[in-house]
Amino acid sequence: MTKVEVLNPATNEGIETLEYTNEATVNKQIEKAQDAFLSWREVDAHTRSEKLWAWSKLIDEHKEELAELITKEGGKPLKEALGAVDYARSYVDW
């Protein structure tokens, strides 16, 4: 399979090497996402709320890690990346 290297735009340093996928794998993942959607919509509001709260906590616990990754992948200053993580988390917290 063909591979692509993710580079830090500021340093041109390699961050990760990823493999391209094929149509069959993409279709399989789409089916899995559809199945997850169908089961998620059957979950009651209280349980959904608990899951979203847990997700928000995970984002907060890994805020620095996520911001560093944003900085490496996109070249965004760390302070702005930290703000981007908070902003993204606000969508989970609504």
From TrEMBL:
Give the InterPro entries listed for this entry. Answer: Ald_DH/histidinol_DH, Ald_DH_N, Aldehyde_DH_dom, Aldehyde_DH_Superfamily
Indicate the segments forming the Aldehyde dehydrogenase domain, all copies: 3-94
Concerning Gene3D superfamilies, the annotation shows: Aldehyde Dehydrogenase, Chain A, domain 1
The species is Staphylococcus nepalensis
Specify whether Iron is a keyword of the entry. Answer: no
The answer, when asked if Oxidoreductase is one of the entry's keywords, is: yes
Query: One GO BP annotation here?
Result: gamma-aminobutyric acid catabolic process
Q: What is this protein called?
A: Succinate-semialdehyde dehydrogenase (NADP(+))
